[in-house]
Amino acid sequence: MRSALAALATAAALAGCGGAAAIRSAAATSSTPLTSTNTTIAASISVVPTEQASPQTIQLHRSLQRTLDGLGRHVGALVVDLNTGTVLFSRNAGVARAPASLEKLYTSVALLQMLGPSARLQTTVLGVGHLGAHGVWHGSLYLRGDGDPTFGDGAWDKFFIGGNGPTAAELARRLYALGIRRVTGLLYADASRFDSRLGGPATRNAPDIPDYGGEMSALVFDHGATGFGLGPAAFAAHQVAATMSDIGITVSAARHTAVTPVDALPLAGVSSPPVSVLLKLMDVPSDDLFADLLTKQLGYEALHQGTLAAGTELIRQVLALRYALHPRLFDGSGLDKADRSSPAQIVSLLQQLWPTPFGVILRRALPVVGVSGTVQTIADHTAAQGRCVAKTGTLDYVTNLAGYCSARNGHTLAFALMLDGPSNWQAFGPLGRMVAAVASY
Hints:
The chain is α/β, with parallel strands linked by helices. The protein folds into 2 domains: 8-115 and 278-288 and 308-439, DD-peptidase/beta-lactamase superfamily (Beta-lactamase, 3-Layer(aba) Sandwich), CATH 3.40.710.10; 122-273, CATH 3.50.80.20. The protein is built from 13 helices and 11 strands. The chain has helices at residues 2-14, 55-69, 103-114, 154-161, 168-177, 209-212, 232-246, 275-283, 288-303, 308-323, 343-353, 357-365, 424-439; strands at 46-47, 75-81, 86-91, 122-131, 136-145, 182-190, 250-257, 265-271, 388-395, 398-406, 412-420. The radius of gyration is 24 Å and the shape is elongated.
């Protein structure tokens, strides 16, 4: 993975003659100047003077301006026609604000860049000992998690992720097929791939159930569930042990975690869906647990440090070296209120990705406006329904939306709308009107 970072640096240097590193700002239509340290726009974007604007552009400009005027001063927006590279609307496009879950766009791109769309995460049972007569495993087993956020039981898997994930029953059946019927030792949970912090910066690393819906660990079960006085990893081991017992393998789980011995033998394993599917499972419902676990995965893969700090550093490097972007990031989910990014940075990323294979994967991973996920009720029954894909980003008094629209004129528009001040319930209506205006262009 370090060689991959070196390759990114080389690619960025080669791009200096007109690729991603060749940039210009959209400051001509923004009330705040853009600088190379906080905002970049790809070189192909241009600004059309007002006197040369088409009636459609003037109509879009007036519609967005009228809506934003009613939302206060702390708003930012940028809309770009990707077919022509023209800025159709810009207001405060260079001002960095809290991106909230728009940050998952950055996390998604880093995962595609560094792991690849077909990569899968493993959950493995390893054993120390040997298999004797009558199916008795003389020794202990270790359930090692490699950061897969989709591991769980069959009912959870079917209800929450559409049957895409690996299950405890699948793992137990593979152990049964090896002839194991009883384990003399214990089943231990191994979550050593990541650090032991159960939450993120918003709670100073303490559990954050309201935001994450579970607790973080390299070994999670049913979205980081806990119970019986057990943390997420030990709880996972107990659930797997219970499933093993259900199919005829007698085993007890330890109440504490342990590191798998180096001489342990791999016995059975299950795999997550590929990264291309994990992105959809993260982005459509805007799942914070998925985002920050996958960020820790990036840290482990690149730096052998399964921490948010290491993973976020890798995301920053990918954005800087590959896309010439420099947002301020402290996690992968956007929960940290100290994160900062601008509409221009987000649209630049969308513009650069649009003609690429990774761009196709990202668009397929985003929820459809008026149809699915966190945008199901935004701009429904308008021109945007079914014709825009977008990522939401919300914190208290922060309401953002960014993505792509297929406009009425057949062009693809990239947009980022960032609203600070109004409450979320007050802002969703205006966001819907604005994305509908974009789709009507």
